[in-house]
Every structure is written in C-alpha cells, then in structure tokens.
Write a structure and sequence with these properties.
The protein is an alpha/beta fold. The chain has 2 domains: 7-196 and 261-288, NAD(P)-binding Rossmann-like Domain (Rossmann fold, 3-Layer(aba) Sandwich), CATH 3.40.50.720; 209-260 and 294-344 and 367-383, no CATH class. Helix content is 40%, strand content 17%. It contains 15 helices and 16 strands. The protein has helices at 16-27, 44-55, 80-89, 107-116, 118-128, 162-180, 209-228, 232-236, 266-279, 296-307, 327-336, 340-343, 352-357, 368-380, 395-398, and strands at residues 7-11, 31-36, 64-68, 92-95, 132-136, 148-149, 185-190, 192-194, 240-241, 247-255, 260-261, 263-265, 284-288, 294-295, 309-316, 348-349. The protein has a 7-stranded parallel sheet, sandwiched between helices. A 3-stranded mixed sheet has the order 9-10-15. A hairpin with a 5-residue loop joins strand 9 and strand 10. Helix 1 (16-27) crosses helix 9, helix 3 (80-89) packs across helix 5 and helix 7 (209-228) packs antiparallel against helix 11 (327-336).
Length: 402
C-alpha cells in the first residue's frame, strides 16, 4: 500500500549519477527501492552502504530497500509475491541504469542493457500505476547535427557512437509506451558530467577525466625516464625539463574542427533534476547543459599550469599520411580515440523547458579553480582505485601534481 511518504524505485543507484540522486532523495526524506546487482564479493546492500558512507549519510540506509534484479528476466527474476508487493508501494520510477560504453565492439552489450532491458521496467511501471517515470538520458541523443538540439524526441539515425544511438532509441520506446499506457514521463538529458564544483569530489573518472588521465600517464612515463634512466627515451623525442621545472613534451593533438566541451558539475545535475522532479507534474524533455562552453585550448592551459607541462599543441585538420608521430603522441592518440568527437563538438542545446522549470538555474563556468579541485581529487583517489579508502590518506596523493 502506498503511503504519504513518497517511494521512488531507482535503478543505477550504484553508478555515478544514480548514487548522487539516491543521496539527494534520501536527504529530502523519501524512501527508495534500489534495483541493482550484487557483486561476487559484495551484496547490493553492502555496495549501497559503502556509497552512503561516502556521502556521509550511512544512517539513512533504514530508508532504502535493496532488491537484486535482472532486467532480462520476467518480473526481474523475483518471486511473484515480492514483485506484487514492490509494485504496490512504488510511487515513481527513476531509471538511471545504463551501459555507457562507446566502443562499437560492445554494441551487443550496450543494446541489451539500454534498449532490450526497457521492456521489464516499463511493464512494472504500468502494473505499479506509477505517478511518473523519469529517464536519465544524454543530451547527445541529438546525434550528428549542425542544427540546434531541441528538447524533443530524437529524429536522427546518425550518431557518434552506439551509446548515443541506444539512448535515442530508448527515449522513443519510453515515450511510445508511456503515452499508450497514460504514464506521465520526463526525460532528463545531461551533457558531460564531472565532479562536484565546490570540492571536486566524484565517483567516476571517465569523459572529461580520461584524456587528462591519459596525458598524465604519458607524462609520467617520460618523467620516470628523465629522473631514473638518464632520459634515454625522452631525448629521442625531444622531451626535457626546462629551467622552470616544466616538462617539455611535444605532443600534437589533431582534431577535425574547432569546438568545445559542454560540461556540467554533478551538483548542478542533482539540483536541476530534483527541481524537475518537484515541479513537473505533466512531464517533458529537459536539457541539463551549459551555456558557457569550455574550449579545449582552455583545458590544455589549465592542465599546463597544474601538471607543469608544456608542448601540447592543438591542430585542426588531418595529419599528413606520411607524418611521423612520436611515441608519446601515438600512445595518447590510442587513449583518447573514443572521446575525440566530444573534444571538437559544436552542438548547441535548447533549454526552454529546463529554464522554465528550474527558474533559469545554470551550471557554473568551468574555471581553473574547479578544474584544479576535480583533478586533485581524482589524483588523491588514484582515478577511483582507492575512492573508498580512508579520507585522511588522500591528501598525500595530491602532491603528485606539485
């Protein structure tokens, strides 16, 4: 039986965006049913408690019910009595779980997760008679386009990668099903999400972070060579440390055209999403994007200052077929290939619905201070490897950048 306290069924609660929504919903006093999976050495509840500890609200576990589910099975593989009980107490659904892989070799897995997995969650929404179905999508369902990206359902069949394609198809499936079943729905489309703008804390380090992590990895290879091997490898590539202590690493990055990154911090994503949940009774499509685009030249300048590294150069156009690339460039190119389209992006996103509902709440411009906080936190947790380690141990890792 549904009660006065709203109960949200949340998928993807152990992921980056989902975990932040879980924490925010709990702080607002809502009850949450977390649909997720256990790992071989960790139950779903243990995973959720660990996340709540990271947010400093582990005592709120009392308002969370953890349910191991399988989207590929009828009734999620649950006993019928439990399935019926969950349908009875669920008020609204926030479907945040998805496979975010870009690689074409993972197409089958991405399609299975992001498209085929919708059938059971939508059937449950209908049987539970939910008040609202919220879907966390991506602004990049707009696909490859030169036009303004509207807050409406995607129409294109040209995409940068299978992730964009799968999310676009998912939106259309959700819209058709919900309209047929008279279920109110909202589609929330964030652009590229990074850590908290106030302190840099994050639970995931892909997208914005990955090219920078790759650059640091390349830098560290040559720093080690210069410090411990007499610079034998570095000398061949013209790599050295100058009088100011900067490493000079000649590295040309080729991009097809000039563009910019559309970056939003996770705190803005959460605040805007909570406004949408609180104020939209009829539903809609909402772009959570930034009017203040960040040029890659700006990111490179920030990185140069923080990492004490010179020599990175942006070149627009294609490299000559016979152009020799140094080992550092070849390594970096392999690392960033999946993210290349987003480094020279020119897509512009409409925000009419979002501005109306959120009273024109906008994300901050991506300043050097925010960049520094985000990268220092990423380093402190070894890009996520030690993210749940003792917080007191983190400060010593930040010295890596100094």
């Amino acid at each position: 039986m549904k009660t006065d306290t709203q109960t949200y069924l949340l998928t993807g609660a152990t992921g980056f965006l989902g975990s932040h929504l879980m924490a925010s919903l709990l702080k607002k006093g809502y009850r949450i049913i977390v649909f997720g999976r256990s790992k071989s050495n960790e139950s779903l509840q243990q995973r959720v408690i660990k996340l709540l500890q990271w947010f400093g609200i582990e005592y709120m576990i009392k308002n969370v019910e953890c349910v191991d589910y399988d989207l590929s099975k009828n009734m999620f593989g649950l006993e019928k009595s439990n399935y019926v009980r969950l349908a009875t107490i669920t008020d609204s659904i926030i479907h945040c779980a998805s496979d975010t892989s870009f690689a074409e070799c993972k197409r089958e897995k991405v399609i299975e997760s992001n498209i085929n997995g919708l059938a059971e969650i939508l059937k449950f929404a209908s049987q539970a008679h939910v008040k609202h179905f919220y879907y966390i999508s991506t602004a990049y369902v707009a696909g490859i386009t030169e036009n303004i990206c509207k807050e409406n359902l995607p129409l294109t069949d040209k995409f940068t990668n299978v992730y964009e394609e799968s999310k676009a198809h998912a939106e259309n499936i959700i819209a058709e099903y919900c309209e047929t079943k008279s279920i109110r729905y909202s589609i929330i489309r964030p652009s590229i999400v990074y850590g908290d703008s106030s302190n840099g804390r994050s639970l995931k380090f892909n997208a914005l972070y990955f090219p920078l992590k790759s650059l640091k990895f390349v830098r560290d290879i040559y720093m080690n060579d210069l410090k411990n091997n007499g610079g034998k490898k570095s000398e061949k590539c013209g790599i050295h440390i100058n009088d100011q202590g900067y490493i000079k690493l000649p590295l040309s990055i080729y991009l097809p055209k000039q563009g910019a990154l559309n970056l939003i911090p996770v705190d803005y994503f959460v605040n805007a999403t909570m406004e949408i949940i609180a104020k939209t009774s009829s539903g809609g499509i909402f772009h959570l994007t930034n009017h203040a685009y960040t040029k890659l030249e700006t990111i490179i300048a920030y990185n140069e200052q923080l990492m004490m590294m010179k020599g990175v150069e942006l070149i627009y156009g294609k490299s000559a077929e016979n152009e020799m690339r140094n080992p550092a460039e070849e390594l970096f190119e392999r690392f960033i290939e999946p993210y290349r389209p987003y480094l020279s992006d020119n897509r512009i996103f409409e925000r009419v619905n979002t501005d109306l509902v959120t009273d024109k709440m906008h994300p901050p411009e991506f300043t050097y201070e925010i960049f520094k906080n985000c990268m220092e936190y990423a380093i402190s947790v070894n890009w996520g490897e030690s993210i749940f380690a003792d917080e007191n141990m983190k400060s010593q890792h930040v010295k890596e950048y100094s």
